[in-house]
Specification:
Helices cover about 20% and strands about 35% of the residues. The chain is of the alpha+beta class. A hairpin with a 2-residue loop joins strand 11 and strand 12. It comes from Araneus ventricosus.
Length: about 170
């Protein structure tokens, strides 16, 4: 599937990890995990020189080249049982350290908003929505996106993708 879509990187949440590595990957694929091993980034061989830049408790980031420009790819996770503010502050501090460089954030924040496709809004979702507005960047999720998993009594909707590049937001389907 990755080759079908000309994929360079794959962002994963809560992967199966063994001996501090994402299990089941070919040995020539590069991968990075946060300190809590919840979010991870996988670079396929087609990704030209990915550079590891940060691993925090709930976040991991690499830098890749898109056309001739750098793009920081940030992946973030927040447990439904933790205070969302810690994660949002860590993410905000990291964005500030980029000094205006473009970025893409993939986030599993366990937060609900109807505008993201959930049936309800929750307090965490309100805090995340305010965060997105405060950084003045664009969420590229669409409410009609299919679930990422389905169980008997629940379904998981796509994690959030936030970008700083208007062209990417305008030309993406999520």
């Amino acid at each position: 599937m990755a080759n079908e879509h000309l994929t360079d990187i794959i962002i994963v949440q809560e992967p199966y990890v063994k001996k501090n590595r994402i299990e089941g990957l070919p040995s020539f694929w590069k991968s990075w995990l946060s300190k809590n091993q919840k979010p991870g980034i996988i670079a396929l061989p087609s990704c030209n020189n990915p550079i590891f830049i940060f691993s925090g408790n709930n976040m991991v980031a690499i830098k890749i080249q898109v056309n001739s420009d750098p793009l920081s790819t940030i992946l973030s996770y927040s447990s439904p049982y933790s205070e969302i503010e810690h994660n949002l502050n860590e993410t905000n501090n990291f964005i500030a350290s980029l000094h205006g460089e473009d970025f893409l954030i993939g986030a599993d924040l366990n937060a609900h908003r109807q505008s993201w496709g959930y049936n309800d809004d929750d307090t965490r979702g309100g805090k995340v929505a305010n965060f997105i507005l405060s950084i003045k960047f664009q969420l590229i999720n669409t409410p009609g996106a299919p679930p990422t998993f389905v169980q008997l009594n629940s379904k998981g909707l796509p994690d959030l993708i936030i970008v700083s590049i208007p062209d990417l937001a305008n030309n993406s389907e999520w």
